[in-house]
Design goal:
18% helix, four-stranded mixed sheet, 2,3-Dihydroxybiphenyl 1,2-Dioxygenase, domain 1, 8 strands
Length: 125
Amino acid sequence: MFLGLRTAIYQVTDLQAATQWYTTVLGKPPYFENPYYVGFEVGGYELGLQALEPAAEPVENVIAYWGVEDIEQTLAHLLEHGATTCHDIQDVGEGILVASVRDPFDNVFGVIYNPHFKVVEPNPA
């Protein structure tokens, strides 16, 4: 029934600034842009930026963790580009490391190093 993570959407009040920041942090431009939504392809998944009306309150009940090969280097990269630490690197068992930051737009951005997780490519039909 469930096919796995496809999209994590972060709400932002300044879509242009958020698009620029994520372009810099991810090292590539979005593959999709319109006035209310921008999509980045990240390792086969989508990071979406959704324009939030200035008077609206962002929703803070979900955190998406993005897989990384080197959590220390990734965390340093995010902090160098203006993110702030939410949770420093933590070993959650069996060699799995997690951390999270707040981007400049107040979204929580999680990173995870999981040596046990392997992307399974679907069989071509």
